[in-house]
Task: inverse folding
């Protein structure tokens, strides 16, 4: 059976966010001194632009979530949480079915709810905030009278955030393969329609 | 459905608009300062003045003629450091205000003025400062011509306490012949100082062209924008006094090897005001980085500069005679009279945070001879709001000190045999005794050599913008321009990182990767197994 799971805006948001997160990681770790790719100056320009893009995108998406009521998708639930954990650690190896059914009204399983709330509700906004502090750290010295040496701690939190988001991305990409078929989840995020196991 | 499509395209367009706007609204038109041509109007045709047509028997008579019309200028000039070679000074190392300047400072070039006057004061804007008896109130001893000669023919002899010669004389130091000046011609062609006038002394400090500063040298008399964007004759063609704008003979410009306080300085911001770069991130840098840091990428661009001077090896002879050893750039790396030198060209500066104040090691201060003595010290740190990162030339020396009293020493270098002068007798003990006695200071009779440094801010030979430093010159993990700037509060993205955080982060990523791989292989394995069943 084919169900429409993801609306056009969700898909647009998801892929823009994915693209800019990867671009931010790529340029961010170059700025961090991990490798040379675009050149420092170019990396900074791309990173700043992408940071602003993600900020505006996130604000739009929050707005969208609250006006459409889609924010409820992220509401944590205990229902079937244990079953979901058991599925990923045992059932999935033994051909058991997903304990939760994906529908347009409830597209996230209890573990996804927690993980995506962590990403969209905490990690990304935190990264945006530390990013702005990083970008405008001079102004904080003049506006708030903060010590210019604050950059060291701002950088610490921003780099920590980067590692956590990157770890999420690795797990996330892997878990897309756990749908009905290996590519059914990704297909759904592209077309909006997903083959749901009966 | 169509409406939804419209909505999402609208949202997308808005996103793009806001994001681009946020970045590019900060961009301003690139800065392009056109220096106002400073038209200095000549007040009078000096060739018409009877006072300047008479026969001058001495340079003092020329000065008297000048002052007969410019009757207040002498009063002005005798108060300035160009005349007194000292000025009231304060630093955080010494109590109260004290007099400091070339008259009493110790450096690591020719070390000190006292007891060596006739040689050093060839660069004094005066006549006859050959010893302590010089009368600083005698305005006729002012040398107006060295600064105001516009013929380019006026020359003071290197060892005659500021006097020109009275008959053609060869200077043994370089074999050049000096001729008596044509005072009438020169006096009738006076004007505002040109770069050649300032350069007469300021190019040749330390005993030769570019020895001392590294960014002030003969090449500036006729140079290109590539070497000096302000003075290049293919560009703004500016004179020294267009930045060093002088009133009442007070020439602004602070040199922190001979002064300590933050006053009377010349700055880039006199002309280059506000947010001068198109890129806002570069403008942000201006809060902590001085203009010169990026815009003077190297010094000694044309002629080599001396980088170090080891006096302790002086006094060797070849067949009983003083000798020189020529090294790279055609410059001496050894000379019996002076010791060993190292020279450099296109030298990358060092960098320091500097707040506009310095301190000095005076001849009366105790030193620690086991450490390198900072003859001057530039104050500042990253978190000090008054500090900016500046390019610095660090000059290394090894020079005589009193090994018992642990003080620096003024040695007598210049003079005749029998005076104790090192350059005549090659005996450091006698030289130290003679110099210190002259200055009225104690000398124990025991000497040694101590490593010293002086710090020189680089201000001149500003490069055109295309030659300025690029981001990656500093923002690199290793080997960058700021590799040696170790301020505990400074964090340079791309140079610095938190090693613990990075290690934990990498381990986290590897564990995640290992986790999904194990999980994936597990699924694959059990899947095949169940298929097999």
Result:
């Amino acid at each position: 059976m084919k169900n429409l799971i993801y609306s056009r805006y969700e898909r647009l948001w998801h892929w823009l966010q994915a693209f800019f997160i990867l671009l931010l990681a790529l340029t961010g770790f170059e700025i961090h001194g991990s490798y040379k790719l675009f050149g420092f100056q170019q990396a900074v320009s791309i990173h700043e632009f992408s940071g602003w893009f993600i900020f505006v995108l996130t604000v739009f998406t929050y707005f969208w979530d609250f006006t459409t009521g889609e924010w409820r998708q992220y509401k944590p639930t205990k229902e079937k949480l244990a079953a979901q954990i058991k599925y990923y650690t045992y059932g999935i190896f033994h051909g058991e079915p997903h304990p939760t059914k994906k529908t347009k009204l409830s597209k996230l399983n209890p573990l996804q709810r927690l993980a995506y709330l962590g990403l969209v509700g905490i990690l990304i906004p935190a990264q945006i905030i530390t990013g702005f502090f990083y970008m405008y750290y001079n102004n904080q010295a003049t506006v708030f009278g903060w010590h210019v040496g604050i950059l060291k701690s701002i950088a610490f939190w921003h780099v920590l955030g980067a590692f956590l988001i990157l770890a999420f991305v690795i797990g996330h990409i892997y878990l897309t393969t756990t749908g009905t078929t290996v590519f059914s989840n990704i297909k759904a995020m592209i077309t909006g329609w997903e083959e749901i196991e009966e | 459905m169509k409406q939804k499509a419209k909505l999402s395209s609208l949202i997308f367009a808005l996103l793009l608009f806001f994001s681009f706007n946020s970045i590019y609204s900060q961009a301003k038109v690139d800065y392009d300062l056109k220096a106002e041509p400073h038209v200095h109007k000549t007040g009078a045709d000096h060739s018409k003045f009877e006072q300047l047509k008479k026969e001058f028997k001495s340079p003092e008579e020329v000065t008297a003629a000048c002052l007969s019309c410019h009757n207040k200028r002498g009063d002005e000039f005798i108060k300035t450091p160009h005349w007194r070679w000292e000025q009231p000074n304060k630093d955080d190392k010494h109590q109260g205000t004290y007099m400091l300047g070339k008259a009493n400072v110790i450096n690591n070039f020719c070390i000190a003025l006292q007891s060596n006057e006739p040689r050093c004061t060839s660069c004094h804007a005066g006549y006859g400062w050959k010893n302590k008896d010089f009368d600083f109130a005698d305005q006729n001893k002012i040398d107006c011509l060295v600064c105001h000669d516009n013929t380019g023919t006026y020359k003071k002899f290197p060892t005659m306490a500021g006097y020109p010669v009275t008959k053609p004389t060869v200077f043994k130091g370089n074999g050049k012949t000096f001729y008596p000046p044509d005072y009438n011609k020169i006096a009738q062609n006076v004007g505002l100082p040109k770069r050649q006038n300032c350069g007469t002394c300021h190019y040749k400090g330390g005993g030769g062209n570019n020895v001392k500063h590294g960014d002030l040298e003969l090449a500036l008399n006729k140079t290109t924008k590539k070497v000096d964007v302000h003075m290049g004759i293919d560009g703004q063609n500016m004179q020294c006094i267009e930045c060093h704008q002088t009133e009442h003979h007070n020439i602004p410009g602070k040199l922190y090897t001979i002064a300590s306080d933050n006053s009377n300085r010349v700055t880039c911001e006199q002309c280059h005001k506000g947010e001068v770069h198109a890129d806002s991130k570069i403008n942000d840098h201006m809060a902590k980085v001085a203009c010169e840091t990026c815009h003077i990428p190297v010094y000694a661009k044309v002629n080599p500069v001396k980088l170090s001077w080891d006096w302790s090896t002086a006094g060797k002879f070849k067949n009983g005679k003083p000798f020189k050893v020529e090294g790279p750039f055609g410059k001496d790396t050894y000379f019996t009279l002076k010791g060993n030198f190292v020279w450099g060209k296109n030298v990358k500066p060092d960098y320091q945070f500097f707040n506009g104040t310095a301190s000095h090691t005076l001849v009366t201060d105790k030193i620690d001879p086991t450490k390198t003595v900072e003859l001057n010290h530039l104050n500042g740190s990253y978190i000090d709001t008054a500090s900016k990162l500046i390019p610095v030339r660090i000059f290394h020396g090894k020079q005589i000190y009193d090994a018992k009293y642990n003080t620096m020493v003024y040695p007598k270098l210049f003079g005749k045999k029998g005076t104790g002068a090192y350059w005549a007798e090659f005996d450091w003990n006698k030289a130290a005794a003679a110099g210190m006695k002259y200055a009225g200071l104690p000398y124990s009779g025991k000497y040694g050599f101590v490593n010293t440094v002086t710090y020189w801010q680089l201000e001149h030979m500003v490069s055109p913008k295309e030659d300025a430093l690029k981001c990656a010159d500093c923002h690199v993990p290793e080997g960058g321009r700021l590799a040696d700037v170790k301020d505990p509060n400074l964090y340079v993205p791309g140079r610095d990182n938190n090693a613990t955080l990075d290690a934990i982060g990498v381990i986290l990523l590897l564990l995640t990767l290992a986790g999904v791989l194990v999980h994936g292989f597990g699924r694959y394995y059990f899947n095949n197994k169940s298929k097999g069943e």
Observations:
- The longest strand of chain B covers residues 388-402.
